[in-house]
Amino acid sequence: MNQRADELEGESRLVAAWQALRRRTAVESAAAQAVDESVSFAELVWAHHKRQQELEDDVVDGRWEREYRRRLGRFKKDHGEIVEAWWCRYEASGTALTEKCEPRPLQPDDRIFRLHAATDWRTSRAPKIAGALHECETLAIRAGEILRDGTEKVTLHRLYAATSRLLAFVDRQAGKPMPAQNEIDRVVAAHRAELRDIETYYQRAGENAARIVYFQGMALGALALALPLAVGAVLGWYADGFGIFDLHETRIQYLGVCVTMGALGAVVSVMTRMATPGSFNTDFEVGRKPVRRLGFVRPVIGATFALALYVAVKSNLLELGNVAEPGIYFFATVSFLAGFSERRAKVLLGNVAGGVGTGRPANKS
Questions:
Q1: What's this model's pTM, rounded to 2 decimal places?
Q2: Terminal CA-to-CA distance of the chain, rounded, Å?
Q3: Is-contact 310 331, C-beta < 8 A?
Q4: Helices 63-79 and 41-56: crossing angle, nearest 10°?
Q5: Which tens digit of pLDDT belongs to each residue from 46-82?
Q6: Domains of the chain: which residue ranges?
Q7: Cα(76)–Cα(96) distance, rounded to whole angstroms?
Q8: Cα 12 from Cα 106, distance rounded (Å)
Q9: Is 225 left (phi over 0), alpha (psi -120 to 50) or beta?
Q10: What does 20-33 look like in DSSP terms, one character per residue?
Q11: Which whole-number Å values give the CA distances from 60 to 64, 67, 86, 331, 337, in the listed order?
Q12: Distance between CA atoms of residues 250 and 233, nearest Å
């Protein structure tokens, strides 16, 4: 009996040890998977500098050569191919321009350019150069978030050229003095003049990009209004065939015409202002998504004002002109004008609200 009990106890210990080993293995595996394998550009610059020192010492295929290749592969996987790169010879500093293709559904791939810079090692003794480089990096971030396609490529290539020129200017062998202060001031002044020219180009390109994104959002908003109307018309046509629903009812036709013409008026209004210099202004630096959303709601606002005017006229709260029995063409015109100029529509509706709130009849216009 004692021998049997000892055997059972030994088996229990083995099972417990095996379960503990499995738990520890699972934890270690999860920890290994959670290790961040991403490589920053500063880490890549440092590996490149150490590899360069090995090559200068005639060490081929050394430890830092392999480490640099590993970091380079990981960096390219995260940020795309390196289009241009400048590496300081005497210090661990550099700048690079990368291009990455992001797939988009039903559209061509989105080519994203990014400017990378790790320059603080080289510019630690030249604060004015460091400040000028950081200005380039800031503008590169703004351009990368707002611009796309050719304008983004041109802007970031120009910024890359500006940063590489500054780095080449301060790249000095150890023990050699930095350039004189007046020479640094001259180079920084020329750099900032170039930077202002790049920023002017960026502002113009950003405004044009905002117009395109706004128009895309507006087209999506018009489509969002058109789909329910089309579906409702098809369903109404089927229901009308069974005598359930009268699609030819005047009120239904008027509502559909008002919503359509109000949205159309809003679209034409925005397109007219886009064609007039200085008439269409939007803060493009809020981002592409907010600008697209603003464009999306524009047809909805036009349709809403048109619908509100229709209801106000039909309820005799507002009288427009001396039309005894306004017909569908009258409401189509008024709805288009309401969508085209929401400011005038707000004035008319304000008169209605003022008349209702004070107990006086609404002003006629």
A1: 0.72
A2: 109
A3: yes
A4: 150
A5: 999 999 999 988 888 889 999 999 999 999 999 999 9
A6: 41-68+75-179, 215-358
A7: 11
A8: 60
A9: alpha
A10: HHHHHHHHHHHHHH
A11: 10, 13, 22, 82, 76
A12: 14
